[in-house]
Specification:
Helices cover 21% and strands 42% of the residues. The protein has 538 residues and is an alpha+beta fold. Among the domains are: 95-198; 430-530, no CATH class. The strands form 4 sheets. A 9-stranded mixed beta sheet has the order 23-26-21-20-17-16-22-25-24, with no helix packed on it. Strands 2, 3, 5, 8, 11, 12, 13 and 14 form an 8-stranded mixed beta sheet that branches. A 5-stranded mixed beta sheet has the order 15-10-9-18-19, with no helix packed on it. Strand 24 (499-500) and strand 25 (508-515) form a beta hairpin. It starts with a helix and ends in an 8-residue tail after the last strand.
Length: 538
């Protein structure tokens, strides 16, 4: 036992072994609604024996308790994250990064050359202006100067000043071109710097993974590291495209929005989207016995004892989350959770919010109607009713609505199971105008809030079609209902409604009809309330 303990202790003590530095490559990422699981491959070369493998490029947000290691042909011992006293990392540049760096240096040289050219022009201008000023200030001295000599001197000074002024003008003429070259060089440098910054960069805020291991054979080895980070998420997004030309068609374009701010870029990774929520409640809530007692209501302690009886047994617990399932074109089961594996490698840079990835499209044949609610709306709205025949659940997510190729709004899909029916509205129909008039209101002699015993209300509902096409209309209104025998409610409608208690809601009435271009439909709805004397209606 002592020998075995000594062997385990030696394996768990990386300080006694040779340190092998290494870097990793992200190969796969599984993104959850909150958080992500990252799989990295660590390739390294080591002789046979015991070693400390030091992987120096894990992001600072790595969860230490959720690290898992696997390898073939290696003996794995203790491992831990190191957050301080980290060794410097050799940041080898990729060919693209080398090219971007060289371009930045070339543009910096070009800018310095342009700036030097402007400085040379300004120096020549200053020298010529100084020469002209010196000549212009020259004075003849001495009484021996003859008129002829004075004239010659004046001629010489004038010629020199003219030459200096012309030299200054000539130098200044080249200044606009030099300044333009400088501006172009500065723009080119800014562009090169932006291109260099857009390339993948290793995370500057990193931690190191120290792993104690043994290798039986010298040479190249590989270690797989799986760990969890919190700063990543995904959510579904949909494009719902409705058309009535050549038959009713509804195309649902499915996509996902992926966000991550882990501090490192994901380049060419195999992306999996999972609906599992490992950060949420993982076990059912607990029920505790609830003790009830009878007590004297006059006692001041009765309320306190009852409160204690109710609250002493159980801590408050959140309800278990509703399970979500995602099934798409390339879905797979992981236990009770369904995941989607994106079909091609994906690049997701750190700091990206809502990178949209397209999935697939679902084609459905909906029933389309013009939903008219004249009690509240001035126009009817297009409504598509369909059954999810795709065999795949549509998860809750934002949906953008397009009708005949035009964006008409956005909505939120609450989740549609396979085989379930759903309704989605696609904006207003401006040409289907609605009105609701109340020409007659008859009440009891003393008003609705007094001891009157009857009230009658008449409403006239109208739909007018100003479009150039026939629309199937479902017009809806309501009459009050009662659950008391004393309150009697009756109604009449002309024409009679196609459905009463529509959508399993008491008092909701529906009329279904087709309305042709230029046609107007009218419905008269009357309801009467009667109640005993001395009572009021609420």
């Amino acid at each position: 036992m002592r020998a075995l303990a000594f062997v385990c202790l030696a394996l768990a003590s990386p300080a006694l072994a040779e340190t092998v530095p290494a870097t990793s490559r992200i190969t796969a990422v599984t993104v959850y609604p909150y958080g992500a699981e990252i799989t990295r491959e660590v390739a390294f070369t080591a002789p046979a024996g015991s070693h400390e493998l030091l992987v120096t490029d894990l992001p600072a947000g790595t969860e230490p308790n959720l690290i898992r290691l696997s390898a073939e042909g290696l003996g794995l011992g203790a491992f831990a994250l190191r957050t301080d006293r980290l060794p410097p990392r050799d940041e080898a540049l990729t060919p693209a990064q080398e090219a971007a760096k060289a371009e930045v240096e070339r543009q910096e040289t070009a800018l310095r050359t342009a700036e030097a050219a402007i400085a040379a022009i300004e120096a020549r201008v200053s020298a010529a202006e100084a020469q002209a000023a010196f000549l212009a200030g020259a004075k003849a001295e001495g009484s021996a100067l003859t008129p002829e000599g004075l004239a010659a001197l004046a001629q010489t000074v004038g010629t020199g000043v003219l030459a200096a002024k012309e030299a200054a003008l000539a130098a200044r003429a080249g200044l606009p071109a030099a300044q333009k070259a400088q501006d172009e060089a500065r723009k080119a440098l800014d562009k090169a710097l932006a291109a260099e910054a857009a390339l993948d960069r290793p995370d500057e805020n990193y931690v190191a993974l120290s792993v104690a291991l043994t290798t039986e054979q010298p040479g190249d080895h590989s270690l797989t590291v799986t760990h969890f980070v919190a700063d990543a998420s995904w959510q579904p997004v949909y494009d719902l495209m409705l058309t009535r030309k050549d038959g009713n068609r509804l195309t649902i374009g499915r996509g996902v929005l992926v966000s991550q701010s882990t501090g490192e870029d994901w380049a060419g990774v195999n992306l999996t989207l999972s609906t599992a929520q490992p950060a949420q409640q993982a076990e059912p809530s607990v029920l505790y016995p609830e003790l009830r007692r009878l007590s004297d209501p006059e006692s001041s302690d009765s309320y306190r004892s009852e409160d204690m009886a109710v609250g002493s047994g159980a801590p408050m617990a959140e309800a278990a989350p509703v399970e979500e399932v995602m099934v798409t074109a390339e879905a797979a089961m992981q236990g009770d959770v369904v995941v989607y594996r994106y079909p091609s490698p994906v690049d997701v840079a750190s700091g990206v919010e809502n990178l949209r990835l397209a999935l697939d499209e679902i084609a459905l044949e909906p029933e389309i109607e013009a939903r008219a609610i004249p009690r509240y709306d001035r126009t009817a709205f297009v409504l598509a009713r369909f059954t999810n025949t795709s065999g795949e659940i549509l998860l809750p997510g934002q949906a953008f609505l397009m009708r005949e190729g035009t964006l008409v709004g956005a909505t939120w899909i609450t989740g549609i199971a396979p085989g379930a029916e759903a309704e989605v509205a696609f904006g207003a129909i401006e040409g289907l105008q609605l009105t609701r008039d109340m020409p007659v209101t008859a009440e009891g002699d003393r008003g609705i809030l007094s001891s009157s015993t009857q009230r009658e209300e008449v409403a006239v509902l109208k739909v007018k079609n100003l479009t150039d096409e026939t629309w199937p209309v479902r017009l809806m209104d309501l009459v009050p209902y009662s659950e008391q025998e004393e309150l009697e409610i009756t109604f009449s409608a002309d024409p009679a409604p196609s459905e009463t208690d529509a959508d399993a809601q008491r008092g909701i009435l529906a009329w279904e009809f087709d309305i042709a271009p230029g046609e107007e439909r009218q419905i008269t709805l009357t309801h009467t309330l009667r109640w005993p004397e001395g009572m009021v209606v609420q």
